[in-house]
Write a sequence for this structure.
């Protein structure tokens, strides 16, 4: 070792190292990864605190790449960016902790293996070998790992096994219960699907206006306090995915405790267990080593791909990708790389792409349809949406949910801006809804977007000419915009009734607003004064979301007829 | 290395790594001096992040931290600056480990400089153990979500942006406003429901007049053995400020987790701290991110602010109130911006409100305590607290609109309701927000004042509070029908 500057370590005179190779550095054997090789010199990125490393210390190659041990036991667990379990780690995270493959609490734990194949069969990567019934809320499938194929020479009988025990011998090679997966390489699959199937998030403004397809990528940019974390936590709780991977990347420790406690208390309606049992938490908070933060994003997506390959729909949530990009920048700067914008390395865009492009709805090697949906928060400095991470991210995502500071400050949550957001798959998702029993979805969405735009335009006009100068028809439109914003788009995450919203209730709330607007327009046409209409009590419309149960569309429709009757009486 | 602070349940306070650091090494070969940096040559066996003691001919002693090791060169950041140094006549002793300080109750009642050396004429601080000042990250699995309030006796804080045990809640201000007065008042008055409460006050870059004010105002708490004062004055070495908050937090963590106190750490002014970080970065010729601040400022600030919290199996807590003055009042400046991204809310002071003679001049609409919902309300403070706070804020938003409208079209043209909002604003600012600099209000007093202010509004405007609370708390008004 010849040079140490924070996480940057340079070594000299070593044998041939390959890029991405993992080394154990110094007397405490902290992990570091090869990021540049030049002759006999190599640059390493250390994943832990490098205090005490000296010129002359030795860096020993481990022969492997940065990887994580994937197997039963991930669901419900909390891991750091290097996939080391935190649930069993000490209170203070001093450097030099062992990886999960050496961690006693991981390797000593017993699981039930139930074979689902037969000795003598020929199998290929992705084929099923057996299941582990006692791991989390989804059936854990043990698959033939990528790169393996051939005859099953031996298969473990039903019984108790440990993470590193072999459960089969395939084509002469042993397959262990758990698999060491390199995190920087995407796990292989057969083919990508076209066509969109929506992910139901339970958040109305997303599901009704800016939906995201399973296997797509979405980003949530917003300044501090605009509600990024809250929104991501809501999606972790309520979206209809099979497995959630929540990556806390350079954010608050208290929030990770929040996610852990919150999900441990909530029931999973589909399994009867707790929501935490379908969730893997990767926690690399802002005060944990910066380079492990860089790795945590890839660790998280690799966990997601691991479950995708079992045939599940997985959502990876990363809060915040900006902190990950900062880790990239920090290292690039120390390495003397030529900076592009705001100090970020010139390859920022391709690095972001290497993350978001791992999203996809695919046919797995085992022939199942499954998906990885990626949702990342973006934290623009100073709320400046023109900064490089935000602008580059916008190019790679299918859905963009921009959070607006003014909306957040006026306590309009979730503060998703209807002018600054998009859903590139809106139309194909509309087609899916049409084919799945809701032909009205497309029309509802376009009408809602039009109403928002029109009422925004009128609101600006009103500031100049005053409300009373507007024709009655336009005053109703203005009022309709308010009903739509406050009665449908706003959603209180802390409320039992309103925190989650079913597709049917969401549709019913939108219809309620449209019906009321139509009725009011009818009244205006028949000569009723706009002021009279404006002064009638729209409380039942605005409170419907809070006062009806999360999946009760019928209760919303009942309100509709009640309100409409009262309006008719104004005539 | 022993684990002197291992407590009952076996989890220990941060201890330095047991291996990896060399023993004491001494050098006299100084190759370069640049800004706060010193480059020593011919070194061997010196580790990254080691602490160094620098002896100059003439007997002066300075201190430094190793920022980089490159072959036989070590770059050292000199805390007291390199002023007056020359390439010859310097001996550097590398301590073989990062900076450690003694910790324990010995700090209480003491007044020290920004490096922890006594200014009060007393002996050097003796501790029950020594710990590295940078600490270790708290395992997130060990964190207990913050739940109980820290009451400050200041209405606008307790009532509307409740501080919670284990929270980090900054004060955003601009030069010239009484943020230091407010921070000092919080330090003087804060309590946590009868539990043992301690305060560590870290001053960075304060003027001597300000320091005198802080010392004087906190005299009582200091004499009672509840306070640690670390003072780095405006004319003290700038680089020393990088150390001051770390020393404060190391003392605080020990008091919280080894001695079960609720500890409040005030850090004022974080903008001065960040300037010191920027100065070192510039001297190292690092590539800046925004406005000359290094790209790692976020992570650097996080390693300070994230040291707040509560931990499983421990009774104590660390609560942090940093003070950030926003240069030119710009909230998008990197220091307030990055602080806001890390902290759990913010208390914002505004010149316009100060100009109306209100102390503390908190802009309640831009202020937020993100943890308030878990630290206030039934079983925490009072059953009506969250409702009444939401109502006061909603009414303030409406009152602001009404005031703006009145400026455009004249108060006479306002509706009666709007006029009542303008009246409400006056009564809430005078009755609830405005408070004496030494005035310590109970929470009941604060909430009752909030109700009193709300009674200026027609009752049907109070939609955010339940009818049960209206009945119980809203003061009767003669002219109310
Ligand atoms: N959907 C919501 N319902 C209720 N409150 C919300 C909602 N979204 C955000 N908030 C409020 O905004 C605060 C900040 O949200 P957060 O998600 O932490 O912001 P960010 O991650 O963007 O900094 C929260 O503490 C909460 O008070
Ligand atoms: Mg957040």
């Amino acid at each position: 070792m010849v040079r140490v500057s924070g996480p940057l370590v340079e070594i000299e005179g070593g044998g041939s190292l390959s890029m991405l190779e993992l080394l154990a550095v110094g007397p405490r054997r902290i992990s570091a990864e090869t990021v540049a090789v030049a002759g006999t010199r190599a640059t390493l990125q250390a994943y832990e605190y490098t205090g005490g490393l000296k010129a002359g210390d030795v860096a020993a190659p481990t022969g492997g790449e940065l990887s994580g041990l994937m197997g039963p036991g991930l669901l419900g667990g909390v891991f750091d960016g290097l996939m080391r379990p935190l649930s069993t780690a000490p209170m203070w995270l001093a450097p030099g902790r062992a990886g999960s493959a050496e961690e006693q609490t991981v390797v000593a734990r017993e699981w039930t293996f139930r074979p689902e194949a037969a000795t003598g069969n020929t199998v290929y990567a992705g084929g099923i070998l057996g299941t582990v019934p006692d791991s989390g809320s989804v059936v854990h499938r043990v698959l033939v790992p990528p790169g393996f194929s051939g005859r099953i020479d031996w298969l473990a009988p039903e019984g108790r096994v440990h993470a590193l025990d072999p459960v089969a011998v395939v084509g002469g090679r042993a397959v262990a219960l758990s698999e060491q997966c390199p995190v920087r390489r995407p796990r292989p699959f057969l083919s990508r699907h076209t066509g969109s199937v929506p992910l139901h998030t339970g958040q109305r403004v997303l599901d009704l206006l800016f939906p995201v397809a399973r296997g797509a990528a979405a980003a949530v940019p917003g300044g501090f306090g605009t509600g990024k974390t809250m929104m991501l936590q809501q999606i972790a709780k309520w979206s209809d995915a099979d497995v959630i991977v929540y990556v806390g990347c350079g954010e608050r420790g208290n929030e990770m405790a929040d996610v852990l406690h919150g999900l441990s208390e909530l029931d999973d309606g589909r399994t009867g267990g707790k929501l935490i049992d379908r969730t893997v938490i990767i926690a690399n908070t802002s005060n944990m080593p910066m380079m492990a933060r860089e790795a945590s994003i890839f660790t998280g997506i690799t966990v997601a791909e691991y479950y995708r390959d079992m045939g599940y729909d997985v959502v990876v949530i990363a809060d915040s990708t900006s902190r990950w990009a900062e880790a990239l920048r920090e290292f690039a700067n120390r390495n003397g790389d030529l900076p592009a914008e705001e100090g970020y390395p010139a390859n920022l865009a391709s690095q972001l792409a290497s993350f978001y492009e791992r999203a996809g709805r695919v046919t797995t090697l085992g022939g199942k349809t499954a998906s990885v949906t990626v949702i990342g928060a973006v934290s623009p400095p100073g709320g400046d949406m023109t900064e490089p991470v935000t602008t580059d991210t916008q190019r790679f995502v299918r859905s963009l949910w921009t959070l607006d500071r003014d909306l957040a400050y006026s306590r309009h949550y979730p503060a998703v801006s209807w002018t600054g957001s998009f859903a590139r798959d809106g139309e194909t998702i509309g087609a899916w809804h049409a084919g799945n029993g809701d032909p009205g979805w497309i029309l509802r969405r376009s009408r809602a977007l039009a109403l928002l735009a029109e009422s925004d335009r009128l609101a600006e006009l009103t500031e100049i000419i005053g409300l009373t100068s507007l024709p009655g028809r336009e005053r109703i439109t203005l009022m309709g915009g308010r009903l739509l914003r406050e009665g449908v788009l706003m959603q209180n995450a802390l409320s039992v009734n309103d925190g989650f919203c079913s597709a049917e209730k969401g549709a019913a709330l939108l219809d309620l607003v449209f019906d009321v607007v139509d009725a009011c327009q009818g009244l205006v046409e028949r000569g009723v004064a706009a002021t009279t209409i404006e002064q009638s009590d729209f409380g039942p419309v605005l409170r419907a979301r809070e006062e009806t149960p999360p999946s009760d569309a019928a209760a919303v429709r009942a309100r509709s007829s009640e309100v409409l009757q009262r309006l008719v009486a104004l005539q | 290395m022993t684990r002197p602070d291992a407590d009952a349940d076996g989890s220990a306070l941060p201890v330095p790594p047991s291996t990896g650091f060399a023993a004491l090494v001494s050098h006299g070969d100084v190759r370069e001096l640049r800004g706060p940096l010193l480059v020593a040559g011919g070194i061997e066996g010196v580790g990254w992040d080691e602490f160094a003691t620098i002896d100059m001919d003439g007997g002066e002693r300075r201190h430094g931290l190793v920022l980089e090791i490159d072959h036989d060169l070590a770059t050292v950041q000199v805390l007291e600056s390199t002023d007056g140094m020359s390439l010859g006549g310097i001996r550097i002793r590398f301590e073989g480990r990062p900076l450690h300080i003694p910790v324990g109750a010995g700090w209480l009642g003491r007044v020290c400089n920004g490096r922890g050396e006594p200014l009060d004429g007393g002996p050097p601080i003796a501790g029950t153990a020594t710990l590295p000042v940078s600490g270790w990250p708290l395992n997130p699995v060990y964190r207990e979500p913050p739940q109980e309030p820290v009451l400050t006796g200041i209405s606008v804080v307790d009532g509307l942006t409740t501080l919670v045990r284990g929270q980090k809640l900054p004060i955003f201000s601009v030069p010239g406003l009484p943020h230091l007065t407010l921070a000092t008042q919080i330090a003087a008055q804060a309590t946590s429901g009868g539990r043992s409460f301690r305060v560590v006050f870290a001053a960075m870059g304060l003027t001597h007049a300000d320091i005198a004010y802080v010392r004087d105002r906190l005299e009582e708490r200091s004499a009672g053995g509840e306070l640690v004062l670390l003072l780095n004055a405006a004319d003290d070495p700038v680089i020393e400020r990088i150390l001051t908050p770390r020393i404060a937090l190391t003392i605080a963590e020990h008091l919280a987790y080894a001695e079960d106190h609720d500890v409040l750490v005030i850090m004022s002014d974080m903008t001065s701290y960040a300037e010191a970080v920027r100065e070192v970065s510039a001297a190292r010729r690092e590539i800046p991110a925004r406005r000359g601040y290094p790209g790692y400022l976020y992570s650097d600030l996080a390693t300070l602010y994230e040291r707040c919290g509560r931990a499983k199996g421990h009774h104590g807590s660390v609560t942090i109130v940093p003070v950030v003055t926003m240069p030119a009042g710009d909230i998008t400046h990197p220091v307030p911006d990055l602080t806001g991204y890390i902290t759990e809310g913010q208390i914002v002071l505004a010149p316009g409100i100060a100009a109306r003679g209100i102390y503390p001049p908190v802009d309640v609409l831009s202020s937020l305590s993100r943890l308030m919902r878990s630290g206030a309300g039934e079983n925490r403070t009072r059953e009506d607290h969250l409702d009444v706070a939401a109502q006061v804020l909603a009414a303030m938003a409406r009152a602001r609109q009404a005031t703006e409208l009145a400026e455009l079209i004249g108060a006479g043209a306002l509706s009666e309701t709007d006029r009542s909002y303008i009246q409400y604003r006056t009564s809430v600012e005078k009755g609830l927000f405005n408070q004496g600099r030494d005035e310590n209000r109970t929470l009941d007093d604060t909430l009752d004042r909030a109700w009193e202010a709300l009674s200026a509004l027609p009752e049907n405007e109070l939609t955010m509070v339940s009818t049960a609370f209206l009945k119980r708390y809203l003061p009767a008004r003669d002219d109310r029908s």
Residues 1-19 of chain B have pLDDT under 50 and may be disordered. The first strand of chain B starts at residue 25 and ends at 27.
